[in-house]
């Protein structure tokens, strides 16, 4: 589908949280009462007009006894058939954060610490899989994890109704088999799955597998499902067509728009054939939605009002179908959802088909729910905990009754590839001839053994060139303990500056191993103790003959660290904090030369008020003895937001301190789907570096500041800024990378 339909049908299901309601109960209508069938077509955000039509039908007491819907029509129609009323649907639509629904992962604060560390490698959030000698990418930009959980929550009241004729209002949903191109009509099964399949816009949402069929958005087969309501025997029909309009010639400006035009034309042709079969008693409503596109969910209120206006234009014909007030009130009371309580959860099953470690991961996260009252929020938190592992395409659940007791059946779907890769980029340029870049590529092999080991390989080119290979091996019943053996070889540039002039540049070659034992019982924190060792060698690449030409040292010791991380983002954080503590203790073991201890600490804290954000941070580093640690004791400052005005990494010392406050404001329309958020901001920074502990903190700190604009792009944040400091240095910066950067250790 083109961009308009891709964006549009996506957001459609995200109807916030609502109290779970009721055991299904079919509606009953008097024998001589009219049985009005409702046909709701697809159209993305344009389909929100359906809610306006429903408001008028309720106000005028029009009895609806059967509904069929496609895509957005399946969402609105399915929820209405499950027992929601028009006012509730309007409120739900208004409460949705549409942009959040296009991010499958749980909030960053809920991710395991091992996955949070990925953010500091600045990898693009596009996974490339490898299996059986072939590369592949996800079948959709969105796998639909959050959307499915929301649909599940909203349709829990129907968990016993396997036949859609048993719903409060009879219902049909239309999807399409992407393999055969044929229509798939859902008349029974799982209501949430039927709705999810009906709105799987190709290329945007991953297809949904139901049995042997791979299903996508029903718009390609029957966008206005007149035949399905007719087959249910409902007469007359109220048909609502909200399909996108064909563009004028001057708007066909690029291949994507032309492709969208082709698809729209094909859908319109099929829709016209369906509408031609309507009888004289049927009502066709085509709301005048004008320039509202399938992606314009921020214009939901307009769409609802337009839908109301379209229905009100047919009031004389609608009122001929009205029931007396008492009859209609009784009918709607039977069609409403009611609160239900499945009681204590007596059992929990995980459907087979996963690797043993993936099955255990889901079981570890969800088994604590057994023996407790069913609470949808607790189930969703447990599912998010398991999903954050990164191995799953989706994790769904359903209630099931067994021997008169209720339990949960977890339905995980593991990613189809054994290995996956991602790439990333950092770029810095000061518009004064100094620039550097860092290109990263990461290849991860999941489940390399039966206990869930993950083999991660990181390749870097540019300022740092090298390879790191590590095994992350969870241990114990819940995987809270882990082993992390790693090998790394890397070469990086180390500039040497004096009074704002670069005197030389060294190239450091580091060969290192470390063997870590860690403990991370919760996503928010971890502790790790690692044995480290290796050799550092430095050579002079650029500089005069009077400088040291080369040197090397071997090292061995222990590194102890603790991290607490609840930040919601490392790009433009708005909430949470991060504390990172490390003590490196080097000893002359087995002939190594480095000796001494180095302590490092960093703190970042983010707060927000509406569009305004404040990031507070500090960095401290100290070689506890003046000659401790050798090359491993050096800390670098300088660059954008790290004593702005200086060039990147132009200050180096064994003692360092930095404090900063960064203020930024998000601008533009934040309600639009797929907008590129623009930030404007400023920073105040203070700090310096020293070479001995006796100098640490003495003398005047360098005070710096910057002003900048930042754009949050799909490839990562981009900053353009200007900085100046109290030493008289100033610089322009073009920076491609997040506000928070973690120096390689």
Characterize the structure shown.
The protein is α+β, with helices and mostly antiparallel strands and 745 residues long. It contains 14 helices and 33 strands. The strands form 5 sheets. A 16-stranded antiparallel beta barrel has the order 16-17-18-19-20-21-22-23-24-25-26-29-30-31-32-33. Strands 1, 2, 6, 7, 9, 10, 11 and 12 form an 8-stranded mixed β-sheet that branches. A hairpin with a 2-residue loop joins strand 3 (128-131) and strand 4. It is elongated and about 100 Å long. The two termini are 46 Å apart. Mean pLDDT is 86; it is low at 1-32.
The main sheet comes to: 16 strands, antiparallel, barrel
Query: Total strand count, please?
Result: 33
Q: What is the C-alpha radius of gyration, as a whole number of Å? A: 30 Å
User: How much strand?
Assistant: 35-45%
Cα distance spanning the termini: 46 Å
Helical element count? Answer: 14
| Nearest-integer average pLDDT | 86
The oligomeric status of these chains comes to: single chain
Residue windows where pLDDT falls under 50 for at least 5 positions = 1-32
Structural class, by secondary structure, is: alpha+beta
> What is the helix content?
10-25%
Instruction: Record the strand order, biggest sheet.
Output: 16-17-18-19-20-21-22-23-24-25-26-29-30-31-32-33
Shape descriptor? elongated
